[in-house]
Amino acid sequence: MCSFSFWFSHTVADVMLWRRKNLTLGILVVTLAAWVMFEKSGYTLLSFVSSVLLLLLTILFLWAKSAAILNRQQLISCLFCIYTRPAPPLPDVYLSEEVVNDIAALIRDHTNKFLSTSKDIALGKDTRMFFKIAACLWLISVAGGLTDFLTLGYTSLFIVLTVPALYEKYEDSIDRFILIGCMKLRQLYVKFNVQYIGRIQSWVLQKKKLS
């Protein structure tokens, strides 16, 4: 499981950081084409997948049948003919037991971690994680209300495949701007705390003293 998890995380990191430029660019182009097709043609994902699979199976079936019929006719007409029309070149694709066990173990570990975290949040044991997840769900809800699922998915994928690479390339400049922004936010917080929160606290203390 460790080898599969390491390989998977390493591959994802390479794709996100554009270390495999052809694969990353291919993912962006394919997802962009799918988004345009779904948005403009009115296709749904289920109908598109069904149509593609139907077309592919029909082509392979007719190819195999026509090759068999032509080879049989050629064998009857010319017993010494060596050339035969090949069947569809389909590879022997299978999943080994080791790969299946690694994937199952990885899914099980992440599922158990998700269930454990959800239980802690539901029981009020992890307040920080509750606010993080609540904020994420709220942002997803707001974004979902502004756009559809396909556009949101493609935009999220585009951000995931571009922002980390840009950050790695311009890390020093981005960190400097973030540091300046944090300092300004801290100054605004201190100013707001002194002007408003401090006055409210002093007003509350005066009220308590008078009472």
Key features?
elongated; Reticulon; membrane; 7 helices; Reticulon-like protein; transmembrane helix; endoplasmic reticulum; 211 residues; single chain; mainly alpha
Describe this structure in words.
The chain has 7 helices and no strands. It is mostly helical. It has a domain at 179-211. Helix 1 (2-16) packs across helix 4 (97-122) and helix 2 runs antiparallel to helix 6 (149-169). The model has no long low-confidence stretch (mean pLDDT 77).
Question: What is the count of β-strands?
Answer: 0
From the alpha carbons, calculate the radius of gyration and give it in angstroms.
Answer: 30 Å
N-to-C SSE string, H for helix and E for strand: HHHHHHH
Portion in strands? under 5%
How would you briefly describe this protein structure?
Keywords: Endoplasmic reticulum, Membrane, Transmembrane, Transmembrane helix. The protein is built from 7 helices and no strands. It has 211 residues and is mainly alpha-helical.
SSE blueprint:
Elements: H1 2-16, H2 21-41, H3 45-77, H4 97-122, H5 127-146, H6 149-169, H7 171-210
Helix pairs in contact: 1-4, 2-6
